[in-house]
Specification:
The structure is a homodimer.
Chain A (H helix, E strand, L loop, with lengths): L3 H22 L5 E2 H11 L6 H13 L3 E6 L7 E6 L1 H24 L2
Antiparallel strand pairs in A: 1-3, 2-3
Chain A binds a DNA duplex (30 and 30 nucleotides) through helix 1 and helix 3.
Chain lengths: ~110, ~110
DNA sequence: TCAAAATACATTGCATTACTATGTATTTTG
DNA sequence: CAAAATACATAGTAATGCAATGTATTTTGA
């Protein structure tokens, strides 16, 4: 079970999927990085590494899909909160259409 | 519509997804390369390039998920037919489980 | 008490894979 | 008879997940 091929495949499936999942998570709430990893683990079967999340969030920021702000804590390390921009919301909607079309196709193939 | 970000994202989504789709297509029938591209275009919204398909099929073959055989034509260029191996079938079943779990998670996020 | 685990951020370099461009050759179509 | 379609293939580039590594603070459990 879970042969090397399947493991590598799962890693490839994450390319693209992770960005889509994160934008969906950020649609209704803002979250900080560590919290985003928890959300992904809570809502999906996906394992997300720190070395994946932080560069990804920086890309999304650079692309103008999210913004971020530092929030000081009364104790502990400051947190960087991310939120969707208007562009991010519009982009997410386009992505959803593509995803749903793809998914419909795949479900047909699974029968 | 279809901004540069979305286009690049769609390309990333294909990583992994394409292998999954092709294995599913080959589950019940054998097909040759060009025919596989037609099947993908017919059943999905995905555009697949020749430079994507042939290296991908070679990988799947190298991994032992498919075998291939040349079939001479009465006229025209010989065709290379691909079929799933037992390993390929077993691997596909593992992939389906992963995909369905992922998809269930994503559908929850879409609400 | 104090070491380990958890929280919280981040970067570097490697491995993998889709895609463009390019190449060869045959057959069909307008 | 030229263009498009059919049919295979490869080299090089771009993009991204991930392990490894680093810093720093707080909580937990033995």
């Amino acid at each position: 079970m879970n042969s090397e091929f399947v493991q590598k495949w799962q890693s490839q499936v994450k390319k693209g999927t992770l960005a889509f999942i994160l934008l969906n998570i950020l649609k209704d709430n803002e979250f900080y990085g560590y919290e985003l990893m928890e959300q992904v683990r809570k809502f999906t079967t996906i394992e997300i590494a720190e070395g994946t999340l932080y560069p990804l969030m920086n890309r999304l920021k650079k692309e103008g899909l999210v913004t971020s702000k530092w929030v000081e804590q009364e104790s502990g390390i400051p947190r960087k909160y991310y939120q969707l921009t208007e562009t991010g919301v519009a982009t997410l909607l386009e992505m959803r259409v593509y995803w749903q079309n793809l998914e419909t196709s795949i479900q047909k193939l699974l029968k």
